[in-house]
From TrEMBL:
InterPro entries per UniProt: DAACS, Na-dicarboxylate_symporter, Na-dicarboxylate_symporter_CS, Na:dicarbo_symporter_sf
Assigned keywords, A-Z: Acetylation, Amino-acid transport, Antiport, Cell membrane, Glycoprotein, Membrane, Metal-binding, Phosphoprotein, Sodium, Symport, Transmembrane, Transmembrane helix, Transport
Gene3D superfamilies, per database record: Sodium:dicarboxylate symporter
Compartments where located: Cell membrane; Melanosome; Membrane
Family: Belongs to the dicarboxylate/amino acid:cation symporter (DAACS) (TC 2.A.23) family.
Feature: compositional bias, Basic and acidic residues: 493-516
Transmembrane parts of this sequence: 47-69, 90-112, 124-148, 229-247, 267-288, 300-326, 332-355, 412-441
Pfam families documented for this protein: SDF
Name the UniProt record assigns to this protein: Amino acid transporter
Length: 539
């Protein structure tokens, strides 16, 4: 690699080190600075180097499938498969390790650096986008299930159904599911929230009435394994807002969270280079471990097709179209910038685990500012699940068809609404959506024992589902960036414009904005008085 052939920005970006001050280069096609014409070999070399990570990640998925198919014939034992999947397991561990510091620090510093009114407006737009797109995804799921009719049984389903009933989640009452969601928003113990969530269980107690003894099903609270990310998000945001209220007194803590956040992102850029290897082994190990694939495809092929086509329509047409209509920018260029994160979502089946890489991708390839990505992506990864809503709707209609239960209009609307709501409650972990699917089935009185069928193919459907879940978050961040970047003329955008970070604003600010200081240059007397907004925050 000679210096004159490769611009420093390209190398930085391919190393995950690009900064927002560097204009985002569109997938390695950034303008070359040399005046002399390049040879084709040099062009190819430059393109490959600038897109090395993307090329490696996509190749990893393909090579993983090939290795998996090859090793499958070797007849590995269970233990050998576990050892074989070790590099993939390591990637998941690395990504999980980074989630808590990343989510907490980015939200505290994000909320602290944005004016509360602008924060409210920004959050409001994001929620509206998330709500509308999730409803559309649910509608696509229902329509696909009515068109393809996956529940027309040919007898093979019962064979499958008999295979595995043990892992079917216990059905919860709809009211308890929603109450649990609210309880988890307010964790009683922050430390425990890092690894435990609240979940209602049931016990039966005798209830003596005058004439008879009845058994009453009483909800009891239990703590189950699994990070309560919703609780952490709400706390971190509230804490950030409180920190901002402290003004000068809160500056040190804000700087602490900012530095923590930056250091975490450096770790993420290192992990990114391990991702291709990890993804390759995750995919390969899954293929080796699969049981009778042909039976799954012949019996549940239509269901899988419904989900995958629904996800493709939403991810390749609907979301890009919405982005294009609002921004008039090429949505597929935006999508290309996300390839590494999307491949990671496919490999890990987890929105939470994909979050660190998604932040890197939208910031470095799509020019979304750190303020926006680090505020909106953790929220999106937790509450915005378009893919989950889509497959849950397909699954609900599929189970109804399987049991010969006709669905009326009100039930269809109930499925749409509950799928949208329950996708919010779904955790961004593998099979997170299947767990909340029970809520939808309960709400329209469908049997929950057929969930084992859904689980049988969830390892596959969950992958496309997670890709769509994270893609929706990224487009949300892109749209917010567009809203913030729009020229500050209209009244309704005034608040959003307050969080513009790359514009020079000479208007004195009435509030202290310590995070809009140059890094390491904080001077208390300056911060306490009116001060022009400087270019880039330390966030
Ligand atoms: N695995 C999905 C995710 O992490 C959640 C789901 O199962 O729907 O986004």
């Amino acid at each position: 690699m000679t210096e004159e052939n490769i611009s420093i920005e390209d190398v930085k970006a391919s190393n995950g080190e690009a900064h927002l001050d560097v204009p985002p280069h569109a997938n390695g096609l950034s303008e070359h600075r040399r005046s002399e014409p390049e040879s084709t070999a040099q062009k190819v070399k430059r393109f490959v180097l600038a897109n090395l990570l993307v090329i490696l990640t996509v190749s990893a998925v393909i090579v993983g499938v090939l290795i998996g198919l090859g090793v499958r014939n070797a007849g590995l034992s269970r233990t050998q498969i576990i050892y074989f999947g070790f590099p993939g397991e390591l990637l998941i561990r690395l990504l999980k390790m980074i989630i808590i510091p990343l989510v907490v620090c980015s939200l505290v510093s994000g909320a602290a650096s944005i004016d509360p009114k602008a924060l409210g407006k920004l959050g409001g737009w994001a929620m509206l986008f998330f709500l509308v797109t999730t409803l559309i995804a649910s509608a696509i799921g229902v329509i696909m299930a009515f068109i393809i009719h996956p529940g027309s049984s040919d007898g093979k389903m019962s064979q499958l159904n008999a295979q595995d009933d043990s892992s079917v989640p216990e059905a919860k009452d709809v009211i308890d599911s929603f109450l649990d969601l609210i309880r988890n928003i307010f964790p009683s113990n922050l430390v425990a929230a890092a690894f435990q969530s609240y979940a209602t269980g049931y016990k039966f107690v005798k209830n003596d009435t005058n004439s008879s003894v009845l058994l009453e099903k009483v909800p009891v609270g239990t703590d189950v394994d699994g990070m309560n990310i919703l609780g952490l998000i709400v706390f971190a945001m509230a804490f950030g807002v409180a920190l901002r209220k402290l003004g000068e007194e809160g500056v040190i803590l804000m700087k602490f969270f900012n530095s923590f956040n930056e250091a975490t992102m450096v770790l993420v850029s290192w992990i990114m280079w391990y991702a291709p290897l990890g993804i390759m082994f995750l995919v390969a190990a899954k293929i080796v471990e699969m049981e009778d694939v042909s039976l799954l495809f012949t019996s549940l092929g239509k269901y899988i097709a419904c989900c995958v086509i629904g996800h493709a329509i939403h991810g390749l047409l609907v979301l890009p179209l919405i982005y294009f209509i609002i921004t008039r920018k090429n949505p597929y260029t935006f999508l290309l910038g996300l390839v590494t994160a999307l491949a990671t979502a496919f490999g890990t089946s987890s929105s939470s685990a994909t979050l660190p890489l998604m932040m890197k991708c939208v910031e470095e390839n799509n020019g979304v500012s750190k303020h926006i990505s680090r505020f909106i992506l953790p929220i999106g990864a937790t509450v915005n699940m378009d893919g989950a809503a889509c497959f849950q709707c397909v699954a609900a209609v599929f189970i109804a068809q399987l049991n010969g239960i006709p669905l009326n209009f009100v039930q269809v609307i109930t499925i749409l609404v509950t799928a949208t709501a329950s996708s919010v409650g779904a955790a961004g972990i593998p099979a997170g959506g299947v767990l909340t699917l029970a809520i939808i089935l309960e709400s329209v009185g469908l049997p929950t024992n057929d969930l084992s069928l859904i689980l049988a193919v969830d390892w596959l459907v969950d992958r496309t589902c997670t890709v769509i879940n994270v893609e929706g978050d990224a487009y949300g961040a892109g749209l917010l960036q567009y809203l913030v970047d729009r020229h500050p003329n209209k009244n309704e955008e005034e608040e959003l414009d307050k969080i513009r970070v790359e514009e020079d604003d000479a208007t004195p600010k009435p509030e202290i904005r310590p995070l809009i200081e140059k890094q390491g240059n904080f001077e208390p007397e300056e911060a306490a008085g009116p001060k022009p907004c400087e270019k880039e925050s330390v966030m």
